[in-house]
Amino acid sequence: MAGSESSIYKSCLVFSLTANLFFGVNLYVGRRAAWKRSSDEVDTRGSLSWSGRAAAEAESAAAEECSGHGRAYLDGMVVDGRPVCECNTCYGGPDCSLFLPSCSANADGGDPLFLEPFWKQHAESSAVVVAGWHRMSYSFSDYTFLSRELESLLRKLHSQVGNAVTDGKHIVFGVGSAQLLNAAVHALSPDNSSHPASVVASIPYYQLYQMQTEFFDSAGCSFQGDAARWKNATNTTGDIIEFVTAPNNPDGLLNEAVLHGPNVKTIYDRAYYWPHFTGIPSPVDEDLSIFTISKLTGHAGSRFGWALIRDEDVYQRMNWYVQVNTMGVSRDTQLRALKLLKVLIEDGGREIFEFGYKMMTKRWDRLRKTMSVTNRFSLQKIPPENCTFFQKVREPTPAYAWVKCEREEDRNCIEILNAAKILGRGGSVFHDDERYVRLSLIRSDDDFDDLISRLERLASGEDGAKTI
Amino acid sequence: MAGSESSIYKSCLVFSLTANLFFGVNLYVGRRAAWKRSSDEVDTRGSLSWSGRAAAEAESAAAEECSGHGRAYLDGMVVDGRPVCECNTCYGGPDCSLFLPSCSANADGGDPLFLEPFWKQHAESSAVVVAGWHRMSYSFSDYTFLSRELESLLRKLHSQVGNAVTDGKHIVFGVGSAQLLNAAVHALSPDNSSHPASVVASIPYYQLYQMQTEFFDSAGCSFQGDAARWKNATNTTGDIIEFVTAPNNPDGLLNEAVLHGPNVKTIYDRAYYWPHFTGIPSPVDEDLSIFTISKLTGHAGSRFGWALIRDEDVYQRMNWYVQVNTMGVSRDTQLRALKLLKVLIEDGGREIFEFGYKMMTKRWDRLRKTMSVTNRFSLQKIPPENCTFFQKVREPTPAYAWVKCEREEDRNCIEILNAAKILGRGGSVFHDDERYVRLSLIRSDDDFDDLISRLERLASGEDGAKTI
Prior knowledge:
The structure is a homodimer. By secondary structure, chain A is α/β, with parallel strands linked by helices. Chain A contains twelve helices and 22 strands.
């Protein structure tokens, strides 16, 4: 009995010791893991106090999947305590999973969402936390409206990319390049309105130039249409202000100034002069060049642009325009632009431009293939360009396709495309022939996929229209 | 032996079981605690992934003490990996602990830093995290440039405060009220410039009205000075646009329109119509009123304003102005304004307005006491007003003191104050007599303390000037 009792105790002890070992190891390992976890957290969230709630809110909004066809934003409509999904063009339903088959593909506006996946991949380095008391003043501590840190980052970026010389240039920030375009026209116009300046651009041109000049209706200038018409007008009484857009919106050509002379002043719109879209043959070194993050990082909604200006007086006048107009650019926007550009600066822009260039190349390949089955439409032709950034000669991959309807009877090209359920922007918007249509290639993947699928049907004649 | 062996086993087993119990309980409790901890953290930082680093960066910048006489910002200059302190006006040194005794007190600009401590007290609820891919598009999903959530919050706020009727009104956002002032002038001016509108305001008036109208030099309007001069001008050929600022900048009076009639259009600048500064006798119900967060929450640097507009056509024209000028207001700013206003909405604005009113009352008491020892200077007199928000009759506490130099020989008052090391804004800036000076009372505590101390010396004659 005693032996059997002893052996029962023995077995129980062995079991109990094993259990102890199990518990002990578990406890030790668990505690180590917990400690390790918390010490890892020191760097990132160990000491968080007031910012944790905002961070959790943002992550919660970002965690809404929306089936990959939309996104929930922190400031979107809230239903049942959750921000609702905002769906891509042809998707619907509470989680954007519903494809709307009769919907038109949107290739109209220049929404640069092709870069959205890049920022989702760089969520950590691009996030920014704005404290409730962040920069409440009208001005920075040097009494300007402009962050010197951001200014120096912009100079560094241009030098890394090699697309603009910033030495000897002043910098003015604007609420998007939109504000700077008119600030530049205003700064280059005479004070004395007896000889107003004539504002011109080469057809096809971005409509905002004309729209702004006509709408604001300043006594110092007036819009006078096509630059080419002024080529031989030597005896003009006033100054001429020429807009040069390079790469051009809509057709992507690396335009050059048409007009030259002592009474000609040139505004270079360089919104698209980045390696996503074009070769960078050399850094530009112009009297007045305007840039924006809209087509560089894709943050059109942030409204941030900047101008490089050689002349001190023109700089002062543009600066004054922005001051009287809006008292500078939002400090919240400047903070965010700084954070985004830091991501670019870190590797000299290599990653974002490779991402953008690859994406645009793929899209152009698909578009060309789709269009190759028909002679009904043609695409603009742009010669290959040397790119000092990628150190190779490359095919340009402009932001927009400039499509021409080639059939005699297809005089109004946008009507043809609209009938085939494709939204674009007709040639007349750019003061050009209605045979042309601008199709945006920089929108979301969904928008581009829809576009290709609509174009395929149109090109193959499936939509009912006969192709050549 | 067997018994003794058995009893040893028995003792060991008891010990082992006790150990098991200990380990088991420990493990269970530990895990529960860990689970509890993590479930508590779900609300604040449990699931943080990509936002933790940004949050830690922001908290680290905010943790710089700067001796209570400055602040370090996330986007400030960085030295040795830490953002440097930006000191208040009369402070210097790396940690802002150095008082600069010969420095002039700054009571010039209207920087609304008196509200900064409020936001530091509400750090958690007012912080906002902006994801790298937040609202990259040009427009919201309803194709507007304006957040509907923010619009509805503004309507709610006006209704809670009781300072404006928003039913039947359209809302346009602007890059600060600055942009909206000119957008309103433009919208109310005729398209046909053969009869340009005359823009007027009552002296003393905010200089930006004149500055904008003259600088943008639109063919549709021109600035024509004092409204009073137009009172009896019945046979004017064009329209008249009158700016009415209530409470007025600089003197705080609740101005009313001077001009009336079928050809008169009125723009009400309501930047200061909040319970910090004035009684709210009743909600205004005007054709066109302009507001801003600059003097409401104190976020002048964010550049966010809005207009309440009755007429559909005027609304469309102002909306178009903002669109052509800047393509709307930064989405980053709209997100932040939403977060800040949510803090106000939560308790109907009670806390912020009590904070602001108390602060302004204290400052006015100190100012009056300081000025009471001399007859050399006088302050504007504003009658007590009924305040429906605080439900009492109260003394107004305007944002600015409108100081008059009473001595015959003190014709240029700002010169007198500058000599006493006080920066303010001379009467001529507001098109008024140089006997007046505007002193800002809404700046930081340091600026206000410096002002009082300089005024004390001036009033008591210690600065060398003889007082009456």
